Structure formats: C-alpha cells, structure tokens
Amino acid sequence: MTASTSALLTDLYQLTMLQAYFDGGMTKTASFEFFVRRLPQQRNFLVAAGIEQVLDYLEALRFSDAELEWLAGSGRFHRRFIDWLATLCFTGDIDAMPEGTVFFADEPILRVTAPLPQAQLVETRIINLLQFQTMAASKAARCTLAAHGRLLVDFGLRRAHGAEAGLLSARASYLAGFDGTATVEAGMRWGIPLYGTMAHSFIQAHDDEAAAFEHFARSQPMANTMLIDTYDTESAARKLAGLAARLARDGIAIQAVRIDSGDLAEHARRVRAILDGEGLPTVRIFVSGNLDEYAVHDLVAAGAPIDGFGVGTRMNTSADQPWLDCAYKLQEYDGQPRRKRSEGKATWPGRKQVYRRRDTAGCLAGDLLTLLEDRAEGEALLAPAMRAGRRLAASPPLAAVRAHAAANLAALPPALREIAPAEAPPVTVSASLRELADAVDRRQEASSPATY
To answer: Can you give the residue ranges of the Nicotinate phosphoribosyltransferase N-terminal domain (predicted)?
Structure first.
C-alpha cells in the first residue's frame, strides 16, 4: 500500500489549480464536504467508512524530493511553485461522522477546513478512500443483515481490484459486521479474525479424496474445514463421516465442511442428513461461490441448514452497484458560503451539521440537515476529528468501530433493514439552509450579471 503515501496520487488538475491559486494569492480558508448525492436504487442506507485512512493520509501528506524533481522536469510548473510545494503539509481541520455511522443522501460525512490549496489538493485521494470503503461497507452491511447471525467471512482478495482494495474491503466488511477474513495481512494490520479452508487443488493433488481429508485434518487438528465438492459432494460427506471416528480416537475433531458449487441449499440439506445420521451433528456447513446479500437472504429464507457463508467478489466489488454518486465540494471560501448550481448536481452551501432523531424505542426516525451554527433536537453526527493537521485523539480500535456500526444497523427501522428497496426516513433540509441557498444565489446573480 505504498502508493497511499504519495502526494502524486491525485488528478493533474488539482496541481494545475494549485499553481493558479498560488499565483493569485488565493490561500484563505476553505471548507469542502464529502457527501453522496443520491442513494443507489438498491440501497436503503449507506455506512460511513474510510475516515481512518483519510486521517492517516492527511497527517503524512508531503511531497518527496523525487516527486518535486519529477514535477519540475515535467515543464508544467514554475520553480517558485515547486519550492512552495516542498513546504506543503496539511494544517487544516477535519470534522467527520464516526466510521460505522449509517447515513443518507446529501448528508456530509466529512468536512475539510483548511487553506484553499491544501483543501483542494486532497480532494482526489479523499474521494478515493471514502467512496470505496463506504461502498464496500454498505454492501457488507446488507450481507450482515441478510445472514441473521450466521458466520460471514470475507473471501474477496483474489478478485479485488488490486491489493489496496482487497485489504480495505476486508477492513470495511469486518467493520460492517463480518466475522472475519481470509486475507492474512488484514489480520496482521487490524487484528481481524482469520478463517481459511482448503482449495480444490489440495484434494486433486492426492490420489484419494479421503486421504486428502485425513492429511489435512492431521496437519490442522484445531482448524479444519474440509472442501467436499471437488468430485461428488454427498460421496465426499460419507467419506468424511467414515474418517471421523478414526480421527476422534486421536483427539482430532472435524470442525466444518465447505460446499462451493451447485445447488447450495439442496447439497446442504443432503450433507446435513448424512452428517447427522453418522453422529456428527456438531460439524458445521459452510458455503461459498458467487454469494452476495441476495443469495444469502434466499438461502436463509429457504431454511437451508447452513451455518456460515464465504462472501467475496460480489461484496468487495459491490457488483450490483460498483460506484457511488459522491462528491467533495466547496461549501465556503474566505468566510463566504459557496454553492454549485449545475443541473442535477446543485449543492447546499455553507458548513453543515446533521442531527439525528430517534423514536421512543431508539429507532432512527429522521435526520435534519442544517447549518453548523444552528442547534437542533437530536444527536449531532459530525464531530471534530483533527485540528491544525493533527488528530484530537487516538483512533478507536476497529472492534469499537464495529460495535458502533452494529448499533447503527440495529437502530434502523425494520423496512430499511430489508434487502428490498424501501422509502428512507426523511432527511429534512432546514429553513435556514434553504434561505442561505437563496441568498447565495442572489449574491451570485448580482455579482455575475447575464451578458448577451
């Protein structure tokens, strides 16, 4: 993940704008906010994730000597600007929703307040980090809700779009309620529990399937999940049952079997009957193979005797919605609220806060989007995270973030917890914010009269 440390991990236009800001002396304080314009049709909510990586990035932001030399040699930038870049670091403030917070369209989950060139430069990487992890965490949260407490393991690294995506999706899925991951480095980095089984190649490398099972069980006596669908699923289950007694005499218990192909529900029923009939009711059944929240929901609804799911490609690529309509937009510069009015992409001006109301049972009842200086009923969702370029407190452990996400999911109204689309709780825009938008429009029109 060394690319994440480079200040050149940005779009060219960020640097060309920076030189223009530098040349024009435009270095006063700006506020930008990251938000999602509209929820995808397949999502009833989103889960904020990636803020930890944004803070890491901002604290470490520097141009290396090699990067400065390369920029100077590109011929696009003058020497005074290059010398100024050599001194650049992030000195601004960050306010953000805690990771794991459920949010809706138009609600900012992170605000950057800093000198304009700094706040502009970081746009690309902030969108890159927040969009991906929020997308993956939101998909994983739907899997969590569909599984109704059954084991969920991230299997996605091998088809992730690069190493960083594989690692960050492991983190995002665990944050959103998965029980663990198969990605070993994620276990080292963040303490995420590791789960693993075996590949079909292990079975194929042996001349005898039962011998393969025994070899693996004796090598991994405390963690052995046997892959039983290489040849014939039910036949393999019977072979494994016949082996279980011999292994038990040596103190080795078979923990689980994995089915990775075919009609998973029907195979699970047949395998469960075989295992139970052979006196192996504690051997769990784990399934994988192109799963997502829809497949998990259907298997659970069908009453399939499945104890756990390995979910990979469709989760960490968010296959049904592989991008979010998100933005990082200027809301204020030099004390003046700013607003974009592009067709279909208009923004609400000024620095904002989101207040969340709950009903008497603690269930989410609705949100209010209003100006930062307003005070309103409910819980203020954005909180200070960084001041003058430094964190205000140590980052919470991932276990705490996971607990926060679980509490947020538990507080969703029943309709929003379902996989099917539902009408979201109302996000109300305050009268003061609407009035400010009108005032900004009038000011803009007065300062830029139409010409013909």
So the answer is: 8-130
